[in-house]
Every structure is written in structure tokens, then in C-alpha cells.
Amino acid sequence: MSSPKPAYDVILVGGGSAGCVLASRLTENAEVRVLLLEAGSARLPESVAHPPAWPSLVASEAAWGDSTVVQRASGAPVPLPRGRGLGGSSAINAMVFARGHRTSYDSWSAHGARGWTFDDLLPYFQRTETAVSGAPGRGTGGPLTVGPAQQPNEVLTACLDAAVEAGHRRAFDISGGLEEGFAPVDLNIVGGRRQSAADAYLAPALGRPNLDVVTGATAHRLLFEGRRCVGVEYGAGGRTHTAAAGREVVLTAGSIGSALILQRSGIGSEDDLRQAGVDVRHALPGVGRNLHDHPRANLVHQTRQPVPAASHNHGEILGLLRSTPAADGPDVQLIFIDIPLPNPVAPVRNGFTIGVSPMRPASRGSLRISSADPYAAPVIDPRYFTEEEDLRAVLSGIAAAREIARSPALAGWGIEEVAPGPAAADETSIADYARRYFGSYCHPVGTCMMGDDEVSVVDSALRVHGLDGLRVADASVIPAIPSNNTNATVYAIAERAADLLARS
Ligand SMILES: Cc1cc2nc3c(=O)[nH]c(=O)nc-3n(C[C@H](O)[C@H](O)[C@H](O)COP(=O)(O)OP(=O)(O)OC[C@H]3O[C@@H](n4cnc5c(N)ncnc54)[C@H](O)[C@@H]3O)c2cc1C
User: Fold this and answer.
1) What are the sequence ranges of the domains in the chain?
2) Judging by beta carbons within 10 Å of its beta carbon (0-12, 13-18, 19+), is residue 95 exposed, middle or buried?
3) DSSP states of 37-58 as a string?
4) Does any ligand 1 atom lie closer than 6 A to the CB of residue 391?
5) Glucose-methanol-choline oxidoreductase N-terminal domain: from which residue to which, for each copy (predicted)?
6) Residue 6 — pLDDT band, cuts 50, 70, 90?
7) Which residues are CB-neighbours of 113 under 8 A, at least 6 positions away?
């Protein structure tokens, strides 16, 4: 083993959405010395910058290549991509930038998290962004420049018109967390190029003498003196290294990475750890529990009119709906996508897709290490659609999508629904299609849940229960998934974490 590196004040483990925010914000104070460790590379494929190319990235070196275990709903494993490299998932994602609807943060207090309502998060949402829409409640001076596509694909604009014809509300700012209905969503695209967390936050901080970034560095486990976390053991360049933290270690390795690092360090459910051959350092049964995600079913349409080539992120317009009038907020998202996604019925060369996703799924799964080996594949089981209400929400969304597709604004496009197709006319066959052929919307959260009960992992200040000098600050702390794509929420959590660290 090499000799320990000089101590840092804070070590951040994982250079994704949250890690880049924290590296940047913490080093604004020249007195704080920060080390950022990232398993992936600093040099990502050229196509990362080119928005329409993002679907190809999930099978590139910028992704980990994970899949779930076989899901009971579909009888098959489900690919669950996550980013690997500076920027993390923000470097390979679909660039939709949207807060959850304000109502979806209300349940964050259910396990005891205090001070994390939408109103509490609002200053941090605003701090992240310069929103070109200038909509009420949006930020004006943050590192991320966000706005809707200037000229959305014509087929998507027709879908928006069709949604309004079908009786849905035309929203002004569907990214702001205050509205329901349909509108162009803000995107992380600036001047035609992706703006990742590494672009917006990390790049401007890289010249600071108090920030070291080590890429190709996989955190193996955390180092302890008694109950205090004092550093990290990591692998880089074929060797094992250690780095010492004077104040804190902050896990920002994402919903999959952070829980796995805790488990490899002997922090987790005693059964899970013993099964993997890891000695129990600190029993914390919630680690890896509460894994949940947005599953998404796709309605694939063929059109007679040629759909113009994509020039943005493919999904420029979306809507938030309630599956039932009794819902206390929107719980279904429809996203209009300007390409026909692969489908199980018949190949489609020219067309578009309507993605339908339950935004507040009740199904909960788990994540665990398969062994103490830091390079072994994890056991990921989101248990999609194990709760019937998630299926009911999707069925309601599919009914809304079909009504929109029948509206006059889309008539001129010569539409035919190929998948599931007209044969899926009754609820049973539509439900069967959704269950068998859904995919992950790539929004896993919740594996290091915030709260103060026996299933929570971090407290309201993101400190790991029962240990000192250790926090988690990324998508894994989210107790219940917000009702929109997750990245904007992760940025806000990380901004708040930077504040919490600065004050401690
Ligand atoms: C394909 C895809 C499409 C998506 N589309 C959207 C979208 O359009 N809009 C949206 O809002 N959200 C989207 N998301 C989700 C969103 O990007 C994530 O919720 C968000 O980026 C999570 O941030 P994070 O900081 O928690 O984790 P990440 O950004 O994933 O960062 C974790 C980092 O930690 C590193 N790491 C992990 N383990 C270790 C280790 N042991 N040692 C060192 N480093 C480690 C990883 O390599 C990674 O860089 C998408 C995600 C994917 C994968």
C-alpha cells in the first residue's frame, strides 16, 4: 500500500451531479482543502456534448452498465444506466431539467426528515440555475443555464397542441414545481451543447489550489478511527491508496454507488453484510432499502408524414397529470419523444413515442453488495410494479396519451399506434404491455434515506446515523421520488449540503 496522502478537510466520493456541486461550492472558501475522487474518466466521448446522441451513451465507457435482477413484473432484468466519469449521470442523461411538483416533497417528512419541504428547498433550487424563462420563482444567477428548446421538433409541438385540444392545461413553466399540465420543459443545453455538472460547476473550480480531483479512482471502503470516519481507501492505476480527511467524508457516489460503499465498509443490514462476507462495523438496516425509480411504458407511433430529424434531447415537451381527481398532486408524467423507440410489436422507421410514467410510485426494492470485492456487480432489485397503484397510474396515463394521439392537431401526421397497438384495447392487455415492456426512466433514489427512524440512514443534516465525520449527499438520500425527472432535485440537495458543511 502507498503511504497516506496529506490530509484534506473534506473528501468527496463521486464526481457526478452532486459531487461537482459540492467540489465547487466548498472550495469557494480558500481555507477548505477538498479531494474529489471519481471512478470514471475526466475525458468522456465527444458525443456527450451532442444532445441528440445521448441514448448511445448508456452503452459507452461513460456508463457503468448495470442491470437489475429479473423483475417479477416483466420476467426479465431491466437495464439501469448510471453515469461514470466527471459529471456522472448528468453527463449521459437526457438533459430534462425540472423540479418535482411542490406537493411531491410533502412526504419527505414521513420518516422524520425536517426542513426539506419544497419551500425549504426553493432557495437552493434557485441557487443552481439561471432560468432563461424568467418565470416566477426561478433562479437568475446560478451556474446552470436552463431553458426550453427554442424550436421544438414540429411533431412534439403538434403533441402539445393535441394535449390542449384534449382538455389539458397549457402550463407556462412545467420545470418550476408550481404547475401541472403540458409545456416545453427546460433543458441542460447551452448553445446546442450539453451542460453537465462538470461543465457548469466543476470546470470553473478546477484551477483552485485547494481542490484536487483524482479520476480513475474507485472508492473501495471508508476508513475509521472508532466511530469517526477519517478517510477513504481507493484503487487507482492498479494500486491501492488511502486519503485522509480532517473534517468529513461525503459520499456523492449516487443512489447505487453510495449505498454500496457503506455496505463494503461494514455499514448496513447485518444479514446483507454477512451474506456478502463483510464484517459488521455499524448495523444500519436502512442502507440499500427503499430503492425506487420511475418505470416508463412507451406508446410508439408510426406517422405517414416524415418526422423532422432531432436537434435537441428528443424529449422537449412533457406534461404532469393526476391519475385520479383524489390525488393530492400530479402523479403521472407524459413525455413526447421525437423518435420511435424500439418496441416489441413491429419495427417503426418514422414516428414518435409517448412515454408514460408513474411519478410517485409506491413500489420499493433493495440494493446490496454481492461480495466484499469493490469491482463486483451489485444486486439491484427495484421491484417495479409490485404495488398495484403504480399500474393504475400508468393505465390512467396511457388512456390520456391515447386521447391526445386522437386529437385533431395530430391528424395531419397520419398516425398509427404500433405498440402496444389497437389489439391492446382492454385494461388487462394494456396492463400486460406496461408490465412486460416498461423500462427504467433512470431515476433511482432512496437507498440512504433521510429521516430519524430505524429505516433511515442519514439525519436531516445528511449525517450518517451513529457515526461521526460521514455524510451522504446525492440522490440516495431522497426519501420519496419527486414527481418529475430527478436531476434538478439532486442539484438542490447538493447546494443545501454545501451550506450544511460550511456551517458545521
Ligand atoms: C441515461 C440517464 C438519463 C437520465 N435522464 C434524466 C433527465 O433527462 N433529467 C433528469 O432530471 N434526470 C435524468 N437522469 C437522472 C439524473 O441524471 C440523476 O438523478 C442524477 O444525475 C444523480 O446524481 P447523483 O449525484 O446522485 O449521482 P451521479 O450523477 O450518478 O454521480 C455519481 C458519481 O459517483 C461515481 N462513483 C460511483 N461509485 C464510485 C466509487 N466507488 N468510487 C468513486 N466514484 C464512484 C460515479 O462514477 C458517478 O460519476 C438520467 C439518468 C440517466 C443515467
Assistant:
1) 1-145+194-294+363-384+442-504, 149-184+295-358+386-437
2) buried
3) EESS-SS--GGGGSGGGHHHHT
4) no
5) 83-106
6) low
7) 450, 451, 452, 456, 460, 479
CA–centroid distance, residue 141 to ligand 1 (Å): 24
Dmax (CA) for the chain in angstroms is: 70
Residue 275 CA to ligand 1 center (angstroms) comes to 27
Which of 78, 218, 487, 495 is the best mutation target for the ligand 1 pocket, counting ligand atoms within 8 Å of the beta carbon and taking the most? 487
Cite the beta strand spans of 143-227 per DSSP E: 144-146, 181-184, 186-187, 189-190, 193-194, 211-215, 218-225
Measured CA distances, 278 to 243, 264, 265, 270, 271 (Å): 22, 7, 8, 9, 10
Q: Is the minimum distance from the CB of 333 to ligand 1 under 6 angstroms?
A: no
CA 426 / ligand 1 centre spacing (Å): 37
Any ligand 1 atom below 6 A from CB of 343: no
* CA distance linking residue 252 with residue 201, whole number of Å: 15
Closest approach atom of ligand 1 to CA 234: 42
Phi and psi angles of residue 197, each rounded to the nearest 5 degrees, phi first: -60, -35
The catalytic residue positions are 443
Q: Is the peptide bond before 344 cis (omega within 30 degrees of 0)?
A: no
Task: Give the residue, out of 335, 486, 489, with the most ligand 1 atoms within 8 A of its beta carbon, to mutate for a pocket test.
Answer: 486
- What's residue 42's pLDDT? 97
DSSP string, 56-68: HHTTSTTB---BP
pLDDT at 174 over 80: yes
231-269: pLDDT as tens digits? 999 999 999 999 999 999 999 999 999 999 999 999 999
| Residue bearing cell 449516487 | 254
In whole angstroms, give the CA distance from residue 364 to residue 292: 5
> Is it the case that residue 378 has pLDDT exceeding 60?
yes
For 1-145+194-294+363-384+442-504, which CATH superfamily applies?
FAD/NAD(P)-binding domain (3.50.50.60)
| Mean pLDDT estimate for the chain | 97
Find out whether the beta carbon of 82 lies less than 6 Å from any atom of ligand 1. yes
15 lines ligand 1 (CB under 6 A): yes
Q: Which fold has domain 149-184+295-358+386-437?
A: Cholesterol Oxidase; domain 2 (3.30.410)
Q: SS in 3 state form for 274-297?
A: HHCCCCCCEECCCCCEEEECCEEE
> Which residue, by CA, sits nearest to atom 24 of ligand 1?
254
How many whole angstroms separate alpha carbon 355 and alpha carbon 338? Answer: 11
Residue 483 CB–ligand 1 contact under 6 Å: no
How many angstroms is it from 162 CA to the middle of ligand 1?
Answer: 33
- Local confidence band at 132 (pLDDT 50, 70, 90 cut-offs): very high
For cell 423507440, the residue is: 341
